[in-house]
Every structure is written in C-alpha cells, then in structure tokens.
Design goal:
Distance between the termini of chain A: 44 Å
Order of helices and strands of chain B: HHHHHEEHHHHH
Largest interface: A-B, 39 and 31 residues
Structural class of chain A: alpha/beta
Radius of gyration of chain B: 23 Å
Strand order of the largest sheet of chain A: 6-7-8-3-9-10
Number of domains of chain B: 2
Strand order of the largest sheet of chain B: 1-2
Largest sheet of chain B: 2 strands, antiparallel
Number of strands of chain A: 10
Structural class of chain B: mainly alpha
Helix content of chain B: 55-70%
Strand content of chain B: under 5%
Radius of gyration of chain A: 20 Å
Oligomer: heterodimer
Largest sheet of chain A: 6 strands, mixed
C-alpha cells in the first residue's frame, strides 16, 4: 500500500490561510513516519488529506491508487487509514468505552458478532480490555487517548495517523501510548505520527520536517537531526542526545552529531573515554 | 460528576431486562398514571417502588436525581393550591397573603405532584438501568417501520446518542467557564440582577461557541471513522429472554386488573 501526495495545495478559505503549498510525499506500507514542524506549519492539514477529511485545492492524493477526491473511494480509504485526533474528547462518540470502539465497525455495517469480535480485539491490542464498560467521563486523559486509538484499530486499518498522541499526557501515560504505537508498528501497521517531541521523532524510521506549508526536510532521524543549524533556524529543538553531542563537539571532543539513540551516544562517549562497557 | 438520570451499571433483574420491555413499560406506565383515578395512581406509585428496590439503585441516588426538579414540583403544587376553584366546597376558605386556598386545591395539588413524581421516578429508573446504547437500540427497533416511509431511523438514532452525550458536555463547559470567571475575580452571587443577566448571556454565548466548535470537530472525527448516511449495524443485539416474557406477562396482568378496577370505581 502506498500513500502518494503530489504537489498538494490547500487553503482554509474562511481564514484565508494557505496551509499547504505544493507538498509531495510518498509513504510506503508499514512505514513509521514522524511529521515535525512549528505550530501552523500544516502538519494537521497534511494528515487530514490522507483519509479524505480534507481534499486538495490543487494536486492529488492517492491511496493504493484510489484518489481521495472521488466520493466512491472515500469509504475504502477511511477504512484503510485510521485517524486519531489531537484531543480525544473531540473524537469519542460513544458514552462507554465499548460503545465508542464499536462506532467504526457499526459504520462499516458489520454483523453484530463481528463487531463484538473486533471490539474485544481492538481493546485488547490497545491494552484497555478491563475498561470495556466504563463511562468515558470517568477515564483519565491517557485512557481516553487509548480508547481513541482502539476505536480506530477496530476498523483494522493498514495505517494510523496520530495527531500529537502524547500531548498533555504525563510521562507514564505518554509512555503507555508510545509503547502501544511501537507494538502496532511491529504488527505491521503503518504509523504517521505528528509530534513536537523530538525524542519521539528520533525513534521513528523517517522524519518529515514541515515549515510554512512546505516540506523542508525528509530523511532518517540521523540525517534530519544531523542538520542542527537548519532545524534551529526553523524554530525547532533537537533531541537532548543530539544537543549533548553538539555541546561535546563544541568543547573540542571528536564526536559525531548525527546520533539520536541513547545507546549509540553512550557507545561513542565510552569509546572516547577509553573504557569498555561492562 | 453526577448528572440526573445517568446510567448506573448494575446486574439487577431490571438492568438485565430487554430495553424494549423497559421502554414499553415506562411508556404504558406514564400514560396510565395520568389517566387512572387518584387511588389507583397511589397504588401504581407504590408498585413502582418494587422495580426501584430491586434495581439496586440507592433511594438517596433517586432523591438526588429528583432534586434539580424540586423547584418545578413546588411550583406545580403552589399553582394548584392557590388557583384551584374549590367548587363544591363550602365558601369561606383560608387565605395566605391575600391568596385564597381550599381543601380541594390541596388535594388536587397532592395528586398532580404525586403523578408527576411517579412519572419522574419511572423515567429516571429507565435511564439509570438502561445503557444509552441499549436505549438507542430499543428506540431504533420501535421506529423501524418508519423506514418504509423513508424516515432516516439510523441517523435519528445517532442524533439521539449525540444529544445524550451533549448534556454532560454542556454542564462541563458551563462549569469550566464559571471557574475561569471566578479565577479572575468574578462572583455572580455578589452582583446585581442586571450584571447577572449580562453575565448569563455572556456565559450562554461562550458555551454555545464552545459546543459548536466541538460539534464541528466531532463531525469530522465521525467522517474519519466512516460515518455515512444510511443504514448502520449495531453492537447491541436485542434478544428477549424468559425473564422478559415473565415481566411482560406480569405487566399485562397488572394492566388488566388496574383497567378493570378503574372502570369499576368510575
């Protein structure tokens, strides 16, 4: 499965904001991609194009060859690409966890037995099976986020696009959400992940940097975070590990700065100090 | 946060009954309580205590649910006490601050309030013991024949679900805005009527703006999860069990007895 955006332009007519200005991008089956960039750079607008919530004013978006602006393709595209919104309160329709997770399969007009099967499966994949009958108003922010993801999983999508899935969560809840994203990716689900957290972006396979409605950079995390000056100029931070290595380099140590994982950074520092890991 | 009539999870017989049986029983009871003679209305109300007791819902919770409507109950009572004509009664009744009232007025007020309370308890019991999804499935079942005349029953069911969801959202939004106002030093209880009225209109417009924004986002999220016009399937599968048939039999039995008694005493 391939998601293909070709020279996509989009303008919010009421506000007169040109949110996308000629975006071209290809996303492969099973890829784990992070989209980063300052507020208002078009990240959310971009992912909303992937499952036909927004249609390009110019250019085209295709999913497995199906054009998103064709009304007959939209149901199929939305079943294949699930969307998790930034605020779960704006996404959850049901009044209990189980009811909400069932909303998507109900829209797919599946028989009751199949809906039950999918709901049980999705809740267990999201690690919220024990919350099945709980009222939504009694859930924590992290639990709501997992319910929103389970609601998408119940439609068995091949891709999930997540808009800042760890925003406003405490570290423990954010960790649970990230672990689940990793599990889903390991199961073969493609992940498109908007984030402001550079450490999260560093853990993906590919990072797309956006600025003013355009794609500024596109590459692997080491390639992207190796361009520290360019990122800083665009108002973005670097992963703490990259920052540390840059400081060390500035202090005169011969370290590589295109490292984004803690283990690689440690290996390098240990090699420099001449000690071996125990 | 507690909201009037919110569903309370439970495993009682009332909880386990088919929502269609509960909804029909509540509807028939509501018509019945308004129609029968006072003595039978009293008996019906007493019978209502039975499902209330076995539902496992604490009496305190029921009272709490009725509390927000206490003002309306008192108002209905007063109107009937003071504005009942008291025909057939000896002249020269009591007065209170220039308003006259009679024994008939009191009696009438008592029965009206009793019937009103019975209606409320029945409705609260129904919503507290029936999950919204079950209720919607029952409504959808009864509206099904209207599909033949192109009534969008599935859309109506989703609208009902969203309306049920909106109630607590409105209250939360109101509380959020009031807290924000208090945090900036505004206290409605210390202001005059004009200021309060202005503040109320400000609060209403804020709530509406917030709710509309949220509704827009929710509509988009529903689209993302493939919501389309037309038929939808349902997680809830409605099946009548032996307890449903027994309860239906008992309801029909009581209904016939009460109709017979009502016409006998009439």
């Amino acid at each position: 499965m391939l998601i293909h955006l070709e020279d996509v332009y989009y303008t919010y007519e009421t506000e007169g904001i040109e949110a996308l200005r000629g975006v071209s991008l290809q996303i492969q089956e099973g890829e784990h991609l992070a989209i980063i960039g300052p507020n208002g750079c078009g990240k959310t607008t971009l992912i909303r194009h992937l499952n036909a919530l927004l249609l390009p004013a110019r250019g085209k978006v295709t999913v497995d060859g199906l054009k998103t602006d064709h009304p007959k393709h939209q149901a199929e595209i939305r079943a294949q690409i699930g969307m998790v919104f930034q605020n779960p309160d704006h996404q959850i329709v049901g009044m209990t966890v189980e009811e909400d997770v069932a909303f998507g399969p109900e829209n797919l007009r599946l028989p009751s037995d199949e809906i039950k099967k999918r709901v049980t499966e999705a809740m267990s994949r999201a690690g919220i099976a024990k919350l099945a009958g709980r009222g939504i108003e009694n859930l924590s922010g992290g639990e709501k986020r997992l319910v929103a993801i389970a609601g998408v999983l119940a439609m068995r999508p091949r891709f999930i696009a997540l808009d800042e899935p760890t925003a406003f969560l405490d570290p423990a809840a954010a960790g649970r959400v990230l672990d689940m994203i990793d599990r889903l990716h390991a199961e073969g689900v493609g992940i498109i992940h908007i984030t402001h957290n550079m450490a999260e972006a560093a853990l993906t396979q590919r990072v797309v940097v956006m600025r003013e409605g355009r794609i500024l950079l596109d590459g692997t995390p080491p390639e992207i975070f190796g361009k520290a000056a360019m990122l800083k100029q665009s108002g973005m931070q670097l992963p703490q590990i990259t920052e540390l290595l840059l400081e060390l380099k500035e202090a005169g140590l011969p370290v590589r700065t295109d490292i984004v994982h803690m283990k690689d950074a440690l290996d390098q520092i240990i090699a420099l100090t001449g000690k071996k890991q125990g | 946060m507690y909201h009037t009539g919110s569903f309370i999870r439970g495993r009682s017989l009332v909880h386990r009954l088919d929502p269609r049986v509960k909804l029909s029983a509540a509807l028939v009871f509501s018509i019945f309580i308004l129609w029968v003679k006072p003595s039978l209305a009293l008996a019906s109300g007493v019978i209502l205590l039975f499902p209330a007791l076995i539902s496992g819902i604490r009496p305190r919770t029921l009272v709490q649910a009725i509390k927000p409507l206490l003002f309306l109950i008192v108002l209905i009572f007063m109107v009937h006490v003071f504005f009942s004509d008291g025909s057939g009664e000896a002249p020269g009744g009591q007065t209170f601050h220039g308003l006259s009232f009679s024994r008939t007025g009191f009696q009438e007020a008592f029965w009206v309030v009793w019937r009103f309370l019975c209606l409320m308890v029945a409705a609260i019991l129904l919503t507290m013991t029936t999950a919204p999804s079950q209720m919607i499935a029952a409504v959808k079942y009864f509206l099904k024949p209207l599909k033949k005349v192109r009534v969008p029953v599935d859309e109506l069911a989703v609208m009902l679900l969203l309306a049920l969801k909106l109630m607590p959202i409105l209250l939360t939004e109101k509380e959020r805005i009031e807290t924000a106002q208090k945090a900036r030093g505004y206290d409605a209880s210390r202001s005059g009527w004009v200021t309060r009225l202005k503040s109320f209109s400000h609060l209403t417009s804020k709530i509406l703006t917030g709710v509309f924004r949220r509704a827009d986002e929710l509509a988009l999220a529903m689209d993302a999860r493939n919501f389309r016009r037309g038929e939808r399937s349902s997680l809830v599968e409605l099946k009548l069990t032996s307890s449903d048939y027994i309860v239906m039999g008992l309801l029909i039995f009581f209904f016939i007895i009460f109709v017979a008694l009502n016409s006998h005493f009439g």
